[in-house]
Amino acid sequence: MPKSVTYDSNSKDLFKISRFGVQFFLDCPRCFYLKNKLGISQIPQIPFTLNNAVNDLLVNEFDIYRKKHEPHPYMIENNIDAIPYDHEKINDWRNNKRGVVYEDHDRGFHLYGAIDDVWINTKTNQLIIADYKATSKLDEVSLDADWQISYKNQVEFYQWLMRKNGFDVQDESYFVYCNGNKTEERFDNTLTFRISLLSHVGNGHWIEPTLDKIKDCLESEKIPPYTDGCKHCNYVKTNFDLYKKLIKEK
């Protein structure tokens, strides 16, 4: 059975770690440790409800073609030989509380991730991981920014999970990237988007070593050092140093 509270090395239950949790560790081992070992969470972030709405609408639209076993027009326009994959577990895979699951008994982890979509290559019968993204910028969207490594890690982790479940998954994945047009003269209760399909050839070589590092981190009794570039670490360290200075002055 998975366990979703703080890590206990003596527990016989599997410790639950999501795809986001793995990225959380990559971004900052210290913050990951504080949350998962000591139960100290960061301040919750404001949800991107508009992005979520775009995601839900894309799910609904792709499901129309899933039921018909036909390619979505985006696939046809981009010469992608695929159709949405019709599988009995598709709704579980897309559910944030369930997702695609792999029980790693060697490390004691219940690993999971909620995918946006799975397609199937009509020529090779390999599965294709697809992810939906929404933004609004004047420039054309791309995957070139340094911070977008998390997007690539995301789909690579999904590929890894699906392969651990016995599926044949192709290396190339796709991002359905929706770029909101904010240059229209009028709103008229309508937000239009420019849609791009961006491909990424995944390489999950980093996943197994990262899981080993996560295991070592959780087993350690030593808090990892502050992470350069982590906004939360910088905030805590700055304010803690200020607090110590104020106490000393008193």
Fold and architecture overview:
With 250 residues, the chain is of the alpha/beta class. It has one domain: Alpha-Beta Complex (Lambda Exonuclease, Chain A). It is built from eight helices and nine strands. The strands form two sheets. The protein has a five-stranded mixed beta sheet, with helices on both faces. A hairpin with a 5-residue loop joins strand 6 and strand 7. Helix 1 packs across helix 2. The N and C termini lie far apart (51 Å).
Task: Present the secondary structure layout.
Elements: E1 2-3, E2 14-18, H1 19-27, H2 29-36, H3 49-68, H4 73-77, E3 82-84, H5 90-93, E4 100-104, E5 109-113, E6 117-121, E7 127-135, H6 149-164, E8 172-180, E9 193-201, H7 207-219, H8 231-249
Parallel strand pairs: 1-2, 2-5, 7-8
Antiparallel strand pairs: 3-6, 4-5, 6-7, 8-9
What keywords describe this structure?
single chain; 250 residues; alpha/beta; Lambda Exonuclease, Chain A; five-stranded mixed β-sheet; four-stranded mixed β-sheet; 8 helices; 9 strands; globular
Overall form: globular
Please estimate the helix content: 25-40%
In terms of quaternary structure, what is this? single chain
Radius of gyration: 21 Å
- What is the CATH architecture annotation? Alpha-Beta Complex
Element-by-element helix/strand order: EEHHHHEHEEEEHEEHH
How many helix segments? 8
Q: Determine the CATH topology.
A: Lambda Exonuclease, Chain A
User: What is the number of independent domains?
Assistant: 1
Major sheet:
5 strands, mixed
Share in β-strands:
15-25%
Give unreliable regions as ranges. none
Number of strands: 9
**Spatial order of the strands forming the largest sheet:** 3-6-7-8-9
> What is the straight-line distance between the termini?
51 Å
Q: Which structural class matches the secondary elements?
A: alpha/beta
Average pLDDT, all residues: 91
CATH class: Alpha Beta
